[in-house]
Amino acid sequence: MNNRWLCAGLGRVLGCLLFVIPLCCQAQYNLVPNPSFEQADTCWPFSGFRYPYDGPDGWFSGGHSPDYFQGPVCAEYGNDVSAPLNHLGFQYPQDGVCYVGVITYNDPVPWREYAVVELIEPLVVGETYYASFYANAAWGGTSTYPIARLASSNVGMRFTMEPNQWEWGDPVPTTVNYAQVYFPQILADTVDWTLVSGSFVADSAYRYVMVGNHFSNAQTDTLPVGSTINPPMSYTFIDNVCVTSDRNGCPLAAGLDDLGTNRLVLYPNPASTMLNISGVPERALVRVYDTVGRKVWVGAARQDLWQLDVSAWSRGTYVLRIEAHGVVHSFRFMLTE
Q1: How confident is the model at residue 261 (pLDDT cuts 50, 70, 90)?
Q2: Are the C-beta atoms of 7 and 97 separated by less than 8 Å?
Q3: What are 209's strand-pairing partners?
Q4: Pairing with 265, which of 21, 113, 222, 276 sits 20 to 30 Å away (CA)?
Q5: What are the residues whose beta carbons fall under 8 Å from the beta carbon of 261, sequence distance 6 or more?
Q6: % pLDDT > 90, the chain
Q7: Strands (E), the chain
Q8: Taking the C-alpha atoms of 77, 134, 255 and 222 in order, what is their torsion angle to the nearest 10 degrees?
Q9: What is the pLDDT of residues 141-179, one digit of tens each?
Q10: CA distances (Å), origin 58, targets 51, 112, 218
Q11: Phi-psi category of residue 84: left, alpha or beta, with phi > 0 → left and psi -120 to 50 → alpha
Q12: String of b and e for 25-56 (b: at least 16 CB within 10 Å)?
């Protein structure tokens, strides 16, 4: 097959031919080619990709083998390389029908995976840029024993002058404990996509962006999102990557001033007696559902650090949803003995 729109629907092709008519779409400001991984030269039969046309067009590996999860044109539901259900988890794409995934924490070997792409044009030194992408903590999937069981902090974007192409046999990529844009809290939402967004002033004419966790194990915080016999590992789905010099060019980039006010973290997970949630907006509506969608608990939060007594609840998996100011955050948590 030789179809450069394998993952894109016909309506998307006709409605927004970004690289043919750049003025027709809101995405005209985005310096990231193939930002939602919809374009592919062929159906890649493996999840891992290394070079620009192994998987999503233009994207390549800056560390080990990031994974490409494809829509129904290329992969049947439940296939290792499919979206929404694959061997790493279950998640509908944030945009389009494809997304990628990277290892963001591993112990004891500090593996990191990075999805890298060359920007449409280099950044201009001294200019302010706005960058964002959507991320989701992977859990579950088709494997008998889930591959990843942790959520990690510091998932972000680092801009570089060199491509840093990773080859088989290369050592584990060295973490630099720095990224221009990253999520400093633990990204633990396994249900919804989390927006990672920020701004920075370019100090070099950067040509590439690397998406992943650029911080060492010692600098990375983790939380369990489930249990498995596999070694400690965090895996994160990535979609809809954006870089622009226009404040309104990336999703929610215009709301950067508000990003630090609602950092929601749920812990411990798994829990046994008490569930804690920090960063809860005052008077936020909180709902808890079981795995079949039945409402188990509903109430209003009254303070930033909010606690829920779950000692008498049945052991199992639940979904907690927090609604405030028109925004909904979801967390999956487990109760164990």
Answers
A1: very low
A2: yes
A3: 117, 159
A4: 113
A5: none
A6: 55
A7: 59-63, 67-69, 99-106, 114-118, 128-137, 150-160, 181-186, 194-201, 208-213, 222-224, 233-244, 265-267, 274-278, 285-290, 295-300, 306-309, 316-324, 327-335
A8: 130
A9: 998 899 999 999 999 999 999 999 999 899 988 899 888
A10: 8, 20, 32
A11: alpha
A12: eebebbbbbbbbbbbbbeebeebbbbebebbb
Domains of the chain: 10-253 (2.60.120.260), 267-335 (2.60.40.10)
Whether omega for the bond prior to residue 84 falls within 30 degrees of 0, making it cis, is yes
Q: Give CA–CA dist 209/163, Å, rounded.
A: 8
Structure-derived torsion over alpha carbons of residues 277, 282, 287, 288, reported in degrees to the nearest 10: 10
Q: Which residue has the tokens 């008490």?
A: 274
Q: Is 124 helix (H, G, I), strand (E, B) or coil?
A: coil
| pLDDT tens-digit map of 202-229 | 889 999 999 999 999 999 999 999 899 9
Q: Beta-carbon neighbour count of residue 23 at 10 Å?
A: 5
DSSP state of 21: S
pTM score of the predicted model:
0.73
